[in-house]
Amino acid sequence: MARAAAHDVKAEIEQLRREIRRHDYLYYVLDAPEITDAEYDALFRRLEALEKAHPELVTPDSPTQRVGGAPLPKFETVRHRHPMLSLANATSRDEVAEFDARVRKLAERAQVEYACEPKMDGVAVELVYEHGRLVTGATRGDGTVGEDVTANIRTIRSVPLTLRPGRPIPARLEARGEVYLPLEAFRRLNREREEAGEPVFANPRNAAAGSLKQLDPRVTAARPLDLVCHGVGTVEGLGVRTQAELLAAFADWGLRPVPRATVARSLDEVERAFAALEAARDRLPFEIDGLVIKVNDLALQRALGEVSRAPRWAVAWKFKPRQAITRVRNIVPSVGRTGVLTPIAELEPVRVGGVTVRNASLHNMDEIRRKDVRIGDTVLLERAGDVIPYVVKVLVEKRTGRERPFRMPTRCPVCGAQVVHPAGEVAYRCINLACPAKLKQAIRFFGARGAMDIEGLGEKLVEQLVDRGLVRDFADLYRLDEQTLVGLERMGTKSARNLLAQLERSKAVPLPRFLVALGIRQVGEATAKALAEHFGTLERIMSASEEALQEVRDVGPEVARSIRQFFAERQNRRVIERLLAAGVRPLPVERVEGPLSGKKLVLTGRLASMTRPEAQRRIEALGGRVVSSVSKDVDYVVVGADPGSKLAKAEKLGLRLLDEDAFRALIGA
């Protein structure tokens, strides 16, 4: 009977994995989802629960294993079997015509068919699949040797860990493509970095490169990277004859092919493809910088070969840079949700890439000093992935001597409170928790989908609530009534009742989402979930010491300090008390019950049979907790190869030590 039950669990796990992979393919590759986010989340949570209860059934290609484990000490190198070549560039029709003439001459053909694809502005990578399973993900590097970023590639949701059997799967597939950051994700990432007082990325490509080359895969997983495929190392065994067929094969295998690809049968058609793509550039959700023109016939590609480090059969027709020159009229600080003051350049209006631009973020004082931007300067702007461009450089030769340096104010321009510049940070912050500028953005964040999920709490409404003094903190939202709301602009009886219903519904909120809603610096969804799972209740989190907070998975000293400071602030605790008094109920995360329930374990040294994150998952699946520090409250200390100082401390305290074999016996491995 037990064997039959185990078989049923295994069958359900496999079925869930197949369903989730299919929905990932529909959502991330075809952009044609069949189910809602809530339905998808329910499938995923069910799979997580089954795998936690049966860790022996977890496989590397399970959808739950996308988020990487512990940080890597460094990237290993990977030698590409076939060189990853770079492309020659063309900047005019005449240069493209020269390319076309060379191809026809070498091919000894009067006409040649071309595949035309957008040139994605991302990071070139190679994905190697063996018998349908992803085994390696590597950067282009110097074309011959790249960096092994497999752990980070696995976190990208549009990358299948196992190829779909949409057509025969080759024994080995060396798919080449571009990792990129969608424009909306790029804007959101930079806003978050500004709010945290961190340096921002200049453009989406830099953001993608910085995200892909994180030594900690969990950082990469937190950034919504995407990947498209446009080529292969070798076509042998793939069963395709043209570039167009190759892109169709990628889709059949579950890989996202480069979008908006067309086939041109003449130079005039190539030019029309270029013009159409350039016209659509500003409407695309990703950054491109030109049109890639490739010989469509793969056999002809091989016959043409390469010259130097570029193929003879392809060229990139580059767009003109989206740049403009204008003058900085003034620099003014803008106050964000966390109180960070961001300097904004007010510009003489100028057209850049079809958009009239009047403002550009200068991000922080370090950036202003590095570029030496002054009020009155003439500057070069470039639009790179954002409606508001960035300042590329100051045209120093145009200075007249009347330009003035900008200095960050010592008082908040909105509320007049003190502005502080914490040691070691680039950010300047307003310290007034009740600052209206901070409050408006904080309330909008509080009501967002990933937080309290209060539909109808839009920007215009929040402005009215704060400006009229109706909402001075989060708790005031729950004291609004129909009469008050109907008295606001654009708020009828129906809208007021809908908002009140949303507020009432939001009172029963999962603890992780409540923590996110509070806006604690450096506490996002993943950290909030880890805190809730570790401590169980809001009260325990609020009273936890920095040392106790650091026992939580992924919480280091800096994040622990930020959490502790937030809950130590009297005003923040008062707001939380008022929220609870208004009926808000942060729902605790259900604890896993098992043989290790209530037990604390410390891991020290390297285990031969599993990684540390895997060991931690298995312990948590059995109800136990992994803590980082040795104390008399610890039940077991698991000792692997090359243990650290924790072993000596554990021996001194007389704690129970487990070698790897004893640990495996404890967890039933």
Structure overview:
The chain is an alpha+beta fold and 669 residues long. The chain folds into six domains: 2-65, Helix Hairpins (Orthogonal Bundle), CATH 1.10.287; 79-318, D-amino Acid Aminotransferase, Chain A, domain 1 (2-Layer Sandwich), CATH 3.30.470.30; 323-398, Beta Barrel (OB fold (Dihydrolipoamide Acetyltransferase, E2P)), CATH 2.40.50.140; 436-506, Orthogonal Bundle (DNA polymerase, domain 1); 511-587, DNA polymerase, domain 1 (Orthogonal Bundle); 600-667, 3-Layer(aba) Sandwich (Rossmann fold). The strands form eight sheets. The protein has a five-stranded mixed β-sheet with strand order 2-13-10-3-9. Strands 16-15-14-17-18 form a five-stranded antiparallel β-sheet, with no helix packed on it. The model has no long low-confidence stretch (mean pLDDT 86).
H/I helix tally: 24
* Helix proportion range: 25-40%
CATH homology superfamily name of the largest domain: DNA ligase/mRNA capping enzyme
So what's the overall shape? globular
How big is the Rg? 28 Å
CATH topology (level 3) name of the largest domain: D-amino Acid Aminotransferase, Chain A, domain 1
Mean pLDDT, rounded to whole units?
86
CATH architecture label name of the largest domain: 2-Layer Sandwich
Oligomer: single chain
**Estimated structural class:** alpha+beta
What is the C-level CATH assignment of the largest domain? Alpha Beta
Rounded to the nearest angstrom, the distance between the terminal CA atoms is 21 Å
Tell me the strand order in the biggest sheet.
2-13-10-3-9
* Total tally of structural domains: 6
